[in-house]
Write a structure and sequence with these properties.
By secondary structure, this protein is α/β, with parallel strands linked by helices. It has a single domain, classed as Rossmann fold. Helices cover about 40% and strands about 25% of the residues. The strands form 2 sheets. The protein has a 6-stranded mixed sheet, sandwiched between helices. It has a 4-stranded antiparallel sheet with strand order 2-1-4-5, covered by helices on one side. A hairpin with a 2-residue loop joins strand 4 and strand 5. About 35% of the residues are buried. InterPro entries: AAA+_ATPase, ABC_transp_ATP-bind, ABC_transporter-like_ATP-bd, ABC_transporter-like_CS, P-loop_NTPase. GO terms for molecular function: ATP binding; ATP hydrolysis activity. Keywords: ATP-binding, Nucleotide-binding, Transport. Pfam families: ABC_tran.
Length: about 270
């Protein structure tokens, strides 16, 4: 078994809202191996996104720690650490500056995280990243508002890839997309992971998406992990009533639906 690239050890986080304490995370531990997709699943408010922010260093835990390659990671991240762990959010407009073109947004990331590259090298790398997310270069001068939702999300992924990360935290990256575009994006993420040996922390409430992409799943309920298992094991034999309840709500896709989606892929 691969040594974990990322470890979350006994992390707790509490917020105070109008004098009431909210336990967003309670003694949470999980790990992520090289090339693995570890899904974090749960209802809204279960602590999934709080965990993602702790991993990224956007929040500091009250207790516990995050380790990268076995070494504790400080909340205040160095530039190399920021480069190593990148974020793709649900809404790409949160990442992309509406006043910057596609090329300006991606090139800015290249300049920040690869200051040793000259202008010619930056342009070459920009073209490579656009190719990796299958975006045509004739969109380079467009603004986010001129792109579709799926195109914007591909540019957000390109911006993350421009940093040459080892880990990407994907926070509900497909939930705002229609079924066909969602499926295309999941296929792209899967291909990128295999080709570049990326590791994903995939935060979602959608177990149908998890089944398509994840190797392992941690299920959250009220800030705690109630079950962690390989994806197929979780679907075949959930150990807790909460997991069984979540699985019962996953839409069943018929053979006709699968054929329809497959035919759409053949035409796109």
């Amino acid at each position: 078994m691969n040594t974990p690239r990322l470890e979350v050890r006994a992390v707790s986080k509490t917020f105070t809202v109008k004098l009431h304490k909210i336990h967003a995370l309670k003694d949470v531990s999980l790990d992520l191996r090289k090339g693995e997709c570890h899904a974090v699943v749960g209802e809204s408010g279960s602590g999934k996104s709080t965990l993602g922010k702790v991993i990224l260093g956007l929040l500091s835990p009250d207790e516990g720690m995050v380790l990268f390659d076995g070494k504790p990671v400080p909340t205040r991240r160095t530039l190399p650490m920021k480069r190593s762990i990148q974020l793709v959010q649900q809404n790409p407009l949160s990442t992309l500056n509406p006043k910057r073109t596609v090329s300006a947004s991606v090139i800015q990331a290249l300049k920040i995280h690869h200051p040793d590259l000259n202008r010619a090298e930056i342009l070459v790398r920009f073209e490579e990243v656009m190719g990796e997310v299958r975006m045509p270069m004739d969109l380079a001068d467009r603004y986010p508002s001129e792109l579709s939702g799926g195109q914007r999300q591909r540019i957000a992924i390109a911006r993350a890839l421009a940093c040459d990360p080892e880990i990407i935290v994907l926070d509900e990256p497909t939930s705002a997309l229609d079924v066909l575009v969602q499926d295309q994006l999941l296929r792209l993420l899967s291909e990128l992971r295999q080709r570049k040996q990326l590791s994903y922390v995939f935060i979602t409430h959608d177990l149908g998406v998890v089944r398509q992409l994840a190797d392992r799943v941690s299920v959250f309920q009220r800030g705690e992990i109630v079950e962690t298992a390989p994806t197929q094991d979780l679907f075949d034999n959930p150990q807790t009533a909460y997991c069984r309840e979540l699985l019962s709500s996953v839409p069943v896709v018929s053979e006709e639906d699968l054929k329809f989606i497959s035919n759409l892929h053949a035409k796109t």
